[in-house]
Design a protein that fits this description.
Length: 83
C-alpha cells in the first residue's frame, strides 16, 4: 500500500509532525466516509488506505515512546508469599 521510501520518510519525522499528519488523515477519512454515504465516491479503496495510514502512523508514534519498566514488587507482597 505504501512505498518503502514513504515509510522511511515517515520514520524520520518527529512525533509532532506525525501527530499533525495523523490529525489530517483522520479528518480526510471522516470526509471520505461522509462522501461515501452520500454516493459521491466511487473508489472505496481510499477509505481502506486512510485507515492503513492511521494505523501505520499510530504505530510509529507508539514505537517512539519510551518503554516503562515493570513495577517493582513491594516488600509486603514478598513477605506474604513466604508464609
Amino acid at each position: 500500500m505504501i512505498k518503502k521510501t514513504d515509510k522511511i520518510a515517515y520514520r524520520q519525522k518527529s512525533i509532532e509532525q506525525l501527530k499533525a499528519e495523523l490529525l489530517l488523515i483522520r479528518k480526510k477519512l471522516a470526509q471520505d466516509c461522509f462522501k461515501l454515504s452520500m454516493g459521491q465516491i466511487k473508489d472505496t479503496s481510499v477509505i481502506k488506505k486512510s485507515k492503513y495510514m492511521i494505523s501505520f502512523i499510530s504505530t510509529l508514534i507508539n514505537e517512539s515512546k519510551p518503554k516503562r519498566s515493570p513495577p517493582l514488587e513491594e516488600e509486603s507482597t514478598k513477605n506474604n508469599d513466604n508464609k
